[in-house]
Amino acid sequence: MYRWQGLHEVPDSWGRSVVTIGVFDGVHRGHRAIVARAAEVSASLGEPLVVVTFDPHPDEVIRPGSHPPLLCTPGYRAELLGGLGADAVCVLPFTTEFSRLPAPDFVRTVLVDGLHAAAVVVGENFRFGHRASGDVALLAELGGKFDFVAEGVPLLADDGVTVSSSWIRNLLAAGDVAGAARDLGRPHRVQGLVVRGHQRGRALGFPTANVASPPFTAIPADGVYAGWLAALDAAGGEAERWPAAISVGSNPTFDGAERTVEAYALDRDDLELYGRTVAVEFTARLRGMVRFDSIDELIEQMRRDVAEARTATSGT
């Protein structure tokens, strides 16, 4: 799969393509339905599938300071999209200038001149161009002018609730990682570099990987979770993977002030992960964050947490 950081990286020899466009944060089940339909059109036309996405999130540019918590990193997003059959992922830098492109200019610049679209498949609520003035109807109208067809895919809903990135963010904020996993189609993942913390976990007999995630990462509500800890290689693939007990919060027993994500690989005290990029995946919430009156009480609870995490991950 090709990964292009902007239209300037598209090869001059690139021919016609089927294009789908969106932020695709999380690449959740609703996004997958759109990409799956685009892949069907791609196969029927015999043209490659290009997924266009954006970085940074458009909200941060249009409404500075309103950046939503991100469900995945750009690199992981591209990996997931590639797994759905994308032949290329084109990440467009979303700048103030780009946001001011009139809808027809967006179509000409991105779809016609940039990617030579033969067909465009988007969600039925897709908007584009300055002040979101363009919709699927305008896209189809412009397609008639520029020789491509356009299609809007109905949004996916469960029990009357539309599967969306914002809905999944709300689930995570409430600590409902199982609900988030259901709508994502996989466990929510937080990636980051392992940094040195206070090393209290090691002193207590439960050495943890303290994960420094990128800004605006969607972190579940404070609490203790079962899940997985994976060490990633330079390409972002999993090198090793362990069941884990995960703590999210500020360590109130120690009067902590900084919110952290710490993962203990079950029954492993021999891992050297400092300076490595890891992924933490959340599968079940075990309890909320509690301030304990003594270290002994904390250790006893941590033992129970580890036992619960072991049970929760034993069948996955």
Layout: helices, strands, pairs:
Layout: E1 2-5, E2 17-21, H1 29-45, E3 49-55, H2 58-62, H3 74-83, E4 88-93, H4 96-99, H5 103-114, E5 117-123, H6 136-146, E6 149-153, E7 157-158, E8 161-162, H7 165-173, H8 177-184, E9 188-195, H9 200-204, E10 209-212, E11 223-232, E12 238-249, E13 260-265, E14 277-287, H10 295-313
Parallel strand pairs: 1-4, 2-3, 2-5, 3-4, 5-6
Antiparallel strand pairs: 7-8, 9-10, 9-14, 10-13, 11-12, 11-14, 12-13
Helix pairs in contact: 7-8
Give the tags.
316 residues; alpha/beta; Rossmann fold; 2 domains; six-stranded parallel β-sheet; six-stranded antiparallel barrel
Describe this structure in words.
With 316 residues, the chain is an alpha/beta fold. It folds into two domains: 2-158, Rossmann fold (3-Layer(aba) Sandwich); 188-313, Elongation Factor Tu (Ef-tu), domain 3 (Beta Barrel). 32% of the residues lie in helices and 28% in strands. It contains ten helices and 14 strands. It has helices at 29-45, 58-62, 74-83, 96-99, 103-114, 136-146, 165-173, 177-184, 200-204, 295-313, and strands at residues 2-5, 17-21, 49-55, 88-93, 117-123, 149-153, 157-158, 161-162, 188-195, 209-212, 223-232, 238-249, 260-265, 277-287. The strands form three sheets. It has a six-stranded parallel beta sheet with strand order 1-4-3-2-5-6, sandwiched between helices. A six-stranded antiparallel barrel has the order 9-10-13-12-11-14. A two-stranded antiparallel ribbon has the order 7-8. Helix 6 (136-146) links the parallel strand 5 (117-123) and strand 6. Helix 7 (165-173) runs antiparallel to helix 8. The radius of gyration is 22 Å and the shape is elongated.
